[in-house]
Design goal:
single chain, mainly alpha, two-stranded antiparallel sheet, 2 strands, globular, XnlR_reg_dom
Amino acid sequence: MPPRRACDVCYKRKIQCIIKTQGDPCDWCDSQSLACTFDRVIQKDPNKRTTSDVVQELSLRVETLEEALQSALCANMPTGGASPWSQRSFPERPFAEPSSIRLTASPVTTNPSQLPAIISPSDLASNTILAQTNPPKPTYKLSRCQIGNNWYFKGIGILSERGRQWIARGAGERVFMENFDIFSNPFGTTPRLSPATFPEQPRVLPSKVICRHLVEVFFKSKTSILFPILERGLFEGTIARAYEDEAVDLGRRTSAEACLWAMLALILRTTDVTQLGLTVEPKDCIHEATRLLTIINGNTSLDSLEGTLLLWACQKMTGQCRDASVTFTSACRMVCDLGGHFPLPRPAILPQHIPTFDDQTRLHIRRLFWVCYCFDKDISLRTERPPLLTSDHCDVSESEEFNNQTIWSNQSRDTNLAKIKENASRILCSPRAFQYTESELLAHVRQLDDELEEWRLSIEPRYRPRLSILSGSSFVLPSVMSLESRTYLINLQLDYLFTIINIHTLVRKCGDLEENLPDDLHSVVHSSADLSIEASRSIFRILETVVDFWKEDSVWIVSHYAPMAAMPLFMNILIHPLGHTADSDLHILSSISLITRKIPAERLSKEEIGYIQEISEFVMELVRLSHSAAWKVKRGEREHDLDIIHA
């Protein structure tokens, strides 16, 4: 019988059993003068099967599948002779997932006269379905796209393998993060292959009357304000081009159709269209928009740019991080192809490749450039990837185009804050940033903080963002404000807190895991880290208000901010599990369950519901590890504070 890990007394008391010499009593029993016995009976789990049972069952299933497959193939063979397939032994997993298939030399001869010519795609598909009796468990999509890369502790990247080990040591628990793609690079890993999902036949747009009705619904929705991609005055032309005769210009019509399909994908998420007789699902619209944009790849127009940005918005809503990244990259290229990176007061000479447009179209393209520019800075600062649109190659100066505020009233993001993000990305996230001394890094952080504060004070008081929001009730959306103004207020507040976090959390790069920081440096690092922690608290406190306002569209807001805001709080609790703010911060993190449950899910797709559930599960896993760290300190198994090394 294998040795038990604990004696009967220690097992019952749930304490560690330490036996220094085999045959001697354990330390606890010896100190308490108790009999150290190993007489308890271990009950065997009746539901637990042995490995041999599982292997035997799997072997029988494999044999059954092989027989069914060979029978299906032989049933289609001509009567003239045996097929070389009948002589071939099948692997244990005849139809594994594409990502696990290994290509090897086939023992079957390649003589064309001997190859079976009767295996049809339908036969193969039917056998594939037969073999896939147990579909793989769906993988989580939450990755560094949502969480970010700016998480360090004394020079250790928290999302690296060494960082995982540091978390495990601090929490005293295994880090159950395998369900989330955060300890690997989401842009460098190989995607799981899947069969093409495009329909065999192109889909036909709804009737023009229904389409116009849905366009009106879209422009009245909050989605059109959250993503100000379409211009009502210009979109009438898009509808006309989408329904014009194919013989006129197929490329122009295809771009317009792609734009309409992408718009329908967004609006059908939250609109009941059964009374209109439509049975199309949002994912069908996404597939058709993707198919059409693939056909016109390289043919840039305003319709294709709008369609690409709308498709990106759909992918963001459903957590398709990799697809959204590729789509957004394409949109940034397209907006420059159309001249959006040039100011509205055009220079006397334009590059020859920049097309000419009327004033209304030029203004809208310039607006789309600013949409791309602002979101590009979010991505760059969050992921430490180089920005796609920079001030070196794009005109982002304060020009006279901003003098008329009425034409920019639908901009939901602040362009000046985006410029500060570009500066922060260049200073803190470029390769040279990893060569700074600790004093240089802190000086740059302080410089950026001064720029950010100067910008904050320049904002009109009714919109001016705050660092500390003490409760959700203290963040109020004035009812007298228009929908656009309230959207701007929300975005400005969240954007400011986002920038605070991503600038100040980088001070945790300072130091060495084996050494204490000097007292003066330790104080500065703590002061800066405290700002990022307070910004995280404020984000969680206002998300409930945001959900009440945005309803279904808050999926994007919660997914964009909650995972990132959870990290500073988690790291601080892990470093100081019994700190004076640890309990309240744990309560704040736990509020993610209430926040996500408040999002109306009646009309959301399964993908969106699963996505928001993943975010909740991720944050609750951080809560579990935080609780575990606190108990480890209480048991005396680790230091109270990980950032202080006691001699």
